Structures are given as structure tokens and as C-alpha cells.
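Minutes, project check-in
Item: structure for the 89-residue chain
Input as provided by the requester:
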Amino acid sequence: MNCLHAFVSGRVQGVWFRQSTKEAAEGCGVTGWVRNLSDGRVEVMACGEEPGLLQLEAWLSIGPELATVAEVVSEQVECGDRFSGFEIR
């Protein structure tokens, strides 16, 4: 199991980014969570097979229609937690 930890910046809050990320993650077959940060970024932790994670990472750089993604900073991390689905925090 691989995990992706990402921070997405730009116009990513108040534009359905978290809900759209949840839907995209479920479509990619990955589990984890997404949440807004107080500095205006969105944080994502996603775990699954490499192809699904790559697909989600590519989607994060685009986001939903109303979003304007300026940057995605991501890294592969060890994932100690097991997630049963993908949730919005």
C-alpha cells in the first residue's frame, strides 16, 4: 500500500474542492481524507495502489471547475493508518 500526502494551494476553498476530491479519490479506488487548512490550502492523505494515486495526483493539479490550482506539493509517505473509505474532515 502506497500513500500520497499532498498540499494544494490556490483558489481551493469554497469551490467544492473537498467534495470533488472525495469523488475523484473514490473513482481512483483510493482511501484516506481531505481537509481545509487555516492558511487557505487543502491537505490530502490518500492511500492505495500506485496507478490510482497517480491518477488522483494528476486530478489535484486541476481540481474542480471553480477551483484555480496554483501548486500541488506532494510526497510518498509511509501510511500507518488504514482507511476504510475516503472522508472529508
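Outcome recorded: The beta strands are 2-11, 31-36, 42-48, 68-77, 86-88.
No further action items on this chain.
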